[in-house]
Structures are given as C-alpha cells and as structure tokens.
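Two folds, back to back.
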Amino acid sequence: MAILNPNEIFFTAFEPKQQNRFIMYVDGVPAYIIKGVGAITLTQESIALNHINVQRFVKGKSKWGTVQMTLFDPITPSGAQAVMEWVRLHHESVTGRDGYSDFYKKDLTLNVVGPVGDVVSEWILKGCLIIEANFGEYSYDNESAAQNITMTVQPDYCVLNF
C-alpha cells in the first residue's frame, strides 16, 4: 500500500519564471532594444560501443546550439549600427579583412528576473560570434510594424550560474 506524503498532495506555493521577464546584456548593444531571445540548447552525441551482439553507448561531443535574438531598430541609438559594429569586428566589408577571434567573440549575459526585478536565474553565453544578421524588410504596405533586426549567435559554451 502506498503511503501519501502530505508535502506532495497539499498545495505548494510557487512562482513560475515568465518569458517576458528578462534582461540580455551584450557589450555595445543597449539592453532595452533586445526584444526577444531564443532558447539555449545543448546537443550531446552518443558513441556506440559494439560487442558481439549488443550495443552500449557513451557520451560523445557536446555542442551548444545557436541562439537567435530579435532586436528593435530605433532611429537613435541605431540598433542596426550597434549590430554592424559587432559584425565589423568579424569582417570589414570595405577592406575585406577578417578580425581575430579575441576581438569579435563576446560573452553575453541573460538575466531572468522575478516579479519585483530581482535576478532569479543567470545564463552566461561564452565566446559568442555572429552567425547571421538580418536587418529586416521595408514595405509601403505595412505602416504600423516596428522595424526589427534578427541575429543568430553561436556560443562556445554556456554556464547556468543559478
């Protein structure tokens, strides 16, 4: 016969993290223009070990997935200009020169905040570089939409502090 634990069957108060409570810090990009941040993902490969007629598995390489960010593009300070300054550290279009990874890789911080503004969770994305930047579309048919920039970054690894 199962024994019920009162701590498991009675109401327990909790406050869930909410998607709209975050602050993303990127050096050179104002935090208030960052509209959204995609999920932080991790993929771990498996390696098969064959022995007679059975297979066992051990962990292979770990890879942190890309993170997509959506930014507002205000007139001033220009969101496009802030992103392009980071892009120019990767590659300078005018001269064709590429930069050293020490210059273009940045550490990003994603703080998840609680209802009163306290930091309840902190992700640090280490060694991020821009994989793709999309500066949005312009159309005479859409007079009410704000201009957005989407940017995809690739971290070397991520750390969940708390």
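---
second:
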Amino acid sequence: MTGTEILYFPSADACYLRELDASIIESGNDHIILDKTLFYAEAGGQPTDTGLLRWDGGEARVWKVTKEKGVIKHYVDKLPPSGQVHGVIDWDRRYAHMRMHTSQHVISGLVFKVYGARTVGNQIHSDHSRVDFQPATFTPEDLKRIEDECNKVFTAAKPVTIFEEDRVAVENRVDDRALMDLIPKSIRRLRIVKIQDVDYCPCGGTHLRNTSEVGRMHITESRSKGKETDRIVYELLQ
C-alpha cells in the first residue's frame, strides 16, 4: 500500500484548499484510507478535521482522522464503495484551528524570546487554546505584555510561510524553542512554519497566510501547573 499524499502540506496557500477528489486504496470496518487527503489528522495539539465524503448515490460523515504508524485513517459513519470520492472539509472548524495554531506559534515565539520559557504543551480548540510554558512564573504585568506584544504582531500583518528544509540546516538554525529532540531522527526533511521575524519552527499543522487573519488575542486565564510551569489560556476576538 502506498502512502497518502497530504495536500495541505506544501504551503500556507495549500492550507486554504477545501475540497478534493481522491481514490480509496483501503477500507476497514469503520475507516478508509485515501491516496490523497486535505483532512488534518489529530496531532501536535491540533484537533482532527471533520467533513464529508461524497460519491455517486451517497455520502459519509468524516468524524475523525488519525495518523497511526504513518497511515492516515478517515473514520466515517458509512463506508463508501470502492473507487472515487469527493471530500469536503468543515471549513469553519478548519479555519478556526488555523487561526488558533498560528496564534500559538506567535505567543510561543514571543514568550521564548522575551522570557526564555519553552512551550512544553499546548492544546488548540475552536473557541480557546492553552499553552504551557517552562520555566515560567508570569505576573499580571507579564500577561498584559504578552497579550499586547502578540496583538502587535497580528496587527502588523506578518506573512506566514511554509516550506521544507534539510534537518541538518534546521538544527543549525533553531534554538531550544523548536523541541527538536521530539522529532524522530529518521525524518531528514522537516516542514517549517516561519512567521517573519517572530517564529521559525518545525510543524505539521495548518496555518494562515498572514497574522492579520488572527484578529486579537485575549488572555482569559493563567495558572501554575507546578515545576516552574505556567499555563496561559486565551481566546481570539475578531
């Protein structure tokens, strides 16, 4: 069985694709594997895409997408017949995650530069997200500064670019923010998300073309998670 081509992978522009035609290459009891996909498989703190698969005479709901040992599985409420399907992602959900994921890179990049705190965990949702930083003990003044600095980046309309680079070149460029030790050594080409002078980090998620699409960030909560770890919870405003 050949692998699934990930159509949103090559560039920020590709993350805006909403529909595709694909062939079924394998079916399970509750899932199918396609030769290509636009559906994001849950990973790295970003939730799965959902949507529809249509074919002559029917359609199925894609309610979860996973990547297991390199295999992307589309879980459906009805198995399509073998052959071709037309996929449509839930765009509002995808776009919300793109805004959140890009904003997470901005806050992670800025907090590392200003406070030297690494991102040690994050979880994106459609309506809010959280990022865990270490070592960090943020004061109310720190939180105000973080919020203000992030919003300046969003207002400044910084371009977001996505490209691949050789792992050696990336290792020679990145700092501790990138958590390179978590990426298997077998991966020699890395997908990079760069936000102009704000952040440069390996990432497999979906992102915006420009930070102006984020809107504004509002930090709703900050609390200690122990061991010099602080969690920031935020929402995005239009």
